[in-house]
Amino acid sequence: MTWKKLTASWPSWVERGALWWSVLYAAGAAVAAATGPAFGYALLGKGTGPAAEWTAAGLYGAATVLAYALPRRPDRAWPSRLAWPVVALCLSSGFTFLLSPVHLLAVLTGRNQPPMDWAAFANQGVAVAGAVLWGCAALVHRRRARGRCPYCGGREAAHGAPATARTAGLVAVATLVPYTTLKTAWALGATVGFTGTGRPGVDPTYTSDTGLWLYDHGIDITAVLALTGMTLALALTRPWGRSLPRLPLLTLGWAGAGALAPFGIFLATIGALTWTGAIDVGLADHAPWVVAVAYGGFSVYGLALGRATHTYQQATRRACGSC
C-alpha cells in the first residue's frame, strides 16, 4: 500500500495502530524496569528509574485495554472520552520532544549545549507519535458513536472564519504580549522582575552561542519565536492565511496547541506555588510573578490556538470522497 493510500484510509486502521503502539510502548517500559536500562522512559521528562518505568508500563498497559475496547464499543461514548487522557499521558511522556528542534540543531552544529540523550530523544518522539495515533483514534471513535462519517465528521465545510475564530486569533496574540515584551526588555538591558546578576531569563547552559550573541545585541530568540506564534494564530484566522500551504499550518497549529496548553498550566502552577512560598524551584533571582504571569499565558495561547486551528481545518476542508 502506498503512503498516499495509507494516509487516505487512516480511519480504517488508526484504532489498531493505537492498540499495537500501546502494547509495544508498555512492553518496552516493563522491560526497562525489569532489566535496568532506562531506554529513555520518564514521567513528565523528569521522573526516571524503575518506579517511573513500572508506572509507565501500568498506565500504558491500561491504555492497551482501552485501545482494545475502542473498535468493540462503537456505539458508546465513554471509550473516546477516556482516550483523551491517554493523549495527555503520551504528551507528558514526549513533551520535551516538541521543544527539542532548536536544542538538536545546536548539538549537531557543536554549539554550547549539554550532550543529547539520544535514547530519551527517540523515546519522546515515539511518545508524540502515540499521542497522534491516540488523538486520531479518539476522533474516529467519537464520530462513529455519533453516527457520522469517520473521515470528515459529516459536516459541511465552513465558509470564511466565524467571529469566534477571529477572536481566538486575537486572544492568542494578546496572551503572548507580556512574555514577548518582558523578554525583549531584558535583552535590551532592563531588569524588571530580575534581581540577580548576569542575563535575566537566559541560562547559558541551554542557550546556543548564536542565541547568546543575539541576546547581547538586543534580540531574545524566544521572543522571536513568540512573534512567530502570533503570526501563526493570525494566519489561521485571517483571509490572507488561506493562500498559505494548508498542511504546514495545521501541523504547526495542532502541535503548538498540544504542547503549550499543558505546558502553560504547569508553569502557571509552579509560579503560583513559588509566589506563595509553598515550593522553591531555584528562581530566587526572578520575581515569582514572572513565571505565573509571563509564562502562564502559554496555556491560554495553546487553547486559543487549538480553537483557531480547528476552525481553519473545518473551513479549508476538501470534499469527502467517502460520504
Notable characteristics:
323 residues; mainly alpha; 2 domains; 0% strand; globular
Which strand-content bin applies to the residues?
Answer: under 5%
**Which structural class fits the helix and strand makeup?**
mainly alpha
Low-confidence stretches: none
Q: Tally the helices: what do you get?
A: 12
Protein name: Integral membrane protein
Keywords: Membrane, Transmembrane, Transmembrane helix
Transmembrane segments: 20-44, 51-70, 82-108, 120-140, 218-237, 249-275, 287-308
Would you kindly provide a written description of the structure presented here, covering whatever features stand out?
The protein has 323 residues and is an all-alpha fold. The protein has 2 domains: 3-145, no CATH class; 163-315, no CATH class. It is built from 12 helices and no strands.
How would you briefly describe this protein structure?
The protein is mainly α. It has helices spanning 3-8, 10-35, 50-69, 78-98, 101-108, 118-145, 163-187, 209-216, 221-237, 246-275, 288-295, 297-315.
List the topology elements:
Elements: H1 3-8, H2 10-35, H3 50-69, H4 78-98, H5 101-108, H6 118-145, H7 163-187, H8 209-216, H9 221-237, H10 246-275, H11 288-295, H12 297-315
Helix pairs in contact: 2-3, 2-6, 3-4, 4-6, 4-10, 7-9, 7-12, 9-10, 10-11, 10-12
